[in-house]
Design goal:
heterodimer, A: mainly alpha, 4 helices, B: mainly alpha, two-stranded antiparallel ribbon, 8 helices, 70% helix
Chain lengths: 190, 296
């Protein structure tokens, strides 16, 4: 290193008579060989290398990275969408279940009230039917009783009349016979 | 592998300079040397080195992306990891908006500088070349010309990168701020002032703007000399350490610790160059970038 410094110090460029900034620049350019025929090709070479690296090295890799990032972003977006759909679906299911429960309750209540009304109507009908049967039975019993009573009166009257005929030897008048019948009927009825 | 590589590297490095020195080799020159000409264009050994490194990088990228798939494996995985890490790192500095536009440049800067620095350590670089006892170009001291030279051990290369950045910096700064916004960013007072204070601040910030302009002008110089200086010093150190024993069979030993150091220096210098250029761009675009985010 010291060798090179000594080379620089003793080089013809270092002994240049130019002074000031221009002289210093010239001296540096000479010592380090910053010459247009070397420097300009270096600039072009570097820019060319940068462009080539951009096209053939960074380009495909960055494109792949962006593609992957896009895919991940799409995946995340889809995941969010699916989560939202799942939440919506769960909410919808809950709503449907709640609605079904409410409908079922309403139907049960309706069925209960309907059954109660029907039962009441049927009971009323049964009561009415029973009452009809009872009335009919009472009427039949009454008619039968009246028939029996009439038969009994007639038989009793005949018996009384027969008995009186026998007792009197058949000498009773029609009026007497009627009076006896009436008397006996009155007693039977009492 | 490394156990064999480093001693071999040192032996290889030591062999040719010893031979060359014996034949009158003039140590590592401070500048790159011309190999041949393509018309008016001079092709130097450092330029050849940069092309080789670029070709290797492109080859690796092409191999990695040849059978590119959404689920990466092997080389694709490694290359994607490298690019993605670099992208995320730069995004942290530049912001989402700016990194999209500029990643190609900063990515190139980092990868190219890093691998050029490391390739410069491969045995044969700087030691395999052409020997001319009569001296090249009539210079009797210039008896040996290596075919390859560390790309960043050439001020033309580091200056080319710095100047390219400076031009792109202007382009990006003006496209982000507008021409008026660009000058306002440099000269306009920061903050709200009124009355006599506003006049005073105008004077102060005009002066600060002039200082900023000087700083902007010297940035390429600082960037290029920093990188060149570090890499050239490293190569000189390795060469000196190789020659220090004066015997070819022990020449491999002294440079070994410096090889590790140069691996680290190569990485640090690539990082420093990329970081500084990214920060310079961020500083000039900061205002408009924040505005852009605010608008979005």
């Amino acid at each position: 290193m010291f060798y090179h410094l000594s080379i620089l110090a003793n080089s013809p460029a270092a002994e240049a008579t130019d002074s000031g900034i221009a002289g210093t620049v010239k001296e540096i350019a000479t010592n380090f060989k910053i010459l247009p025929e070397l420097f300009i090709p270096q600039v072009i070479s570097f820019l060319l290398v940068a462009i080539l690296l951009k096209k053939f090295a960074f380009g495909p890799i960055q494109a792949m990275l962006e593609q992957r990032m896009q895919r991940i972003a799409d995946g995340e977006s889809k995941l969010k969408q699916i989560e939202q759909q799942l939440a919506d679906s769960a909410k919808h299911t809950e709503e449907v279940i709640a609605k079904a429960n409410a409908d079922a309750k309403r139907l049960i209540e309706e069925a209960k009230s309907s059954a109660s009304a029907l039962s009441e109507a049927k009971a009323q009908e049964a009561v009415a039917t029973a009452q009809g049967i009872i009335s009919k039975a009472e009427a039949a019993a009454k008619a039968e009783r009246a028939q029996i009573a009439a038969d009994l009166k007639r038989e009793f009257g005949r018996l009384v009349a027969n008995t009186a005929q026998n007792a009197t030897g058949g000498k009773l008048t029609a009026d007497q016979q009627r009076a006896i019948n009436e008397e006996s009927l009155t007693r039977v009825e009492a | 592998m490394r156990k064999f590589f480093l001693p071999f590297a040192a032996l290889f490095l030591s062999a040719t300079p010893s031979f060359a020195a014996g034949a009158g080799h003039d140590h590592l020159p401070v500048h790159a040397e011309e190999l041949f000409r393509l018309g008016p264009v001079a092709i130097s050994n450092s330029m050849l080195m940069v092309w080789i490194v670029a070709a290797v990088i492109i080859l690796v990228a092409q191999l990695a992306t040849r059978k590119i798939s959404l689920i990466p494996t092997g080389l694709q995985n490694f290359v994607e990891w490298l690019v993605e890490s670099l992208y995320n790192f730069l995004e942290g500095i530049l912001g989402k908006n700016l990194v999209k536009k500029t990643f190609w440049f900063f990515g190139t800067i980092f990868i190219l500088i890093l691998f050029t620095n490391w390739f410069g350590l491969i045995p044969g670089v700087g030691t395999v070349g052409q020997y001319n006892p009569a001296g090249f170009g009539g210079d009797s001291h210039d008896t040996f010309r290596p075919f390859l030279r560390g790309g960043n051990a050439d001020l033309n290369m580091t200056l080319a990168m710095s100047i390219s950045f400076a031009i792109l910096w202007f382009y990006w700064a003006i496209s982000e701020n507008g021409l008026v916004g660009f000058f306002k960013h440099i000269f306009a007072p920061k903050g709200k002032f009124s009355g006599i204070m506003a006049v005073m601040m105008l004077v102060v910030f005009s002066f600060v703007g002039l200082l900023e302009l000087v700083s902007i002008i010297f940035r390429p110089v600082a960037l290029s000399f920093r990188l060149f200086g570090n890499i050239f010093a490293g190569e000189t150190t390795l060469e000196t350490m190789t020659a220090i024993t004066g015997k070819w069979y022990t020449a491999w030993l002294p440079p070994i610790p410096f090889y590790f150091m140069e691996l680290l220096v190569g990485l640090i210098q690539a990082l420093v160059f990329m970081l500084l250029t990214a920060v310079f761009l961020k500083l000039i675009c900061e205002h408009s970038d924040e505005d852009g985010h605010a608008h979005h």
